[in-house]
Amino acid sequence: MKLIIINLMLHDSNILSCFFLPITFIILLAIMMYIHKRQLFKYIYFGNILCLITAVVCYVFIDKHPVGQPYSASWMEAIPFVWLFTIFGGYFWFIASTIAFLVEVSRRNMLAKVLLGFVILCFALLTLWSLFMFFGGIWVLRGTH
User: Whole-model pTM?
Assistant: First the structure.
């Protein structure tokens, strides 16, 4: 496994967002699942963990497949689409799970209220940055004519 990770790091510029970030999210979700009191949220966290594990496994399959070569089995043609849905679904679900966790914990803990405010502030800044990048991309696509 260590050799696969080192090989991924040497040849891929997306290793942070496609491999290490989901692994970090999985660890955080496992901690949240251990701490949380309500059973329903534990199922949501577990589903998110499965989604992110699927994304990481699909990413390794995609990275190890030679470019331009046909797939060895017909089911492997669906792997890029499965990866796309699971990585974006996992990111969205992680954000929603983290906010739900902080809201639930903030009912009992003052530090969680401060963290919830910080998360909301970060989410607002991320939204503004995303809009800036989106409109900047539209401006660039407009052309020079």
Answer: 0.73
